[in-house]
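Form 7-S
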Amino acid sequence: RTERKARVMVNNITRDSVMYLAGLFDGEGCVTYKKYWDRKRKDRPRKYYCWRIALEIVMTDKPTIQWCVNNFGGKIYRKPRKGHKMQYRWRKSFRSANEVAKFIAPFAVTKQEKLLEIVNHYVNQT
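Output:
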């Protein structure tokens, strides 16, 4: 079901939208691609290697984050900060992040290497 949603999301996107997101992501985005030790179940002390794969844009301009949601799916997360403007976050994780990374990696400059790591991670698993 998730794969079907990702394909529908991709078919409606224009090249200009992908290029805009790549530029926005280069300036304001964050790529997380790392392996870490985590305990999956609290009742078992054994730790496992887990992947954390995510793409995220956080900013105070809600219409820009809404544009990301409208064009690439997901939802808006709010982060209230005492004494500061409200922050809004758009986030894609794991395979959803891979779908977006495939499209914006060719147009990215600053974060292209990390985006390609995500794409290659899923290519090597298939």
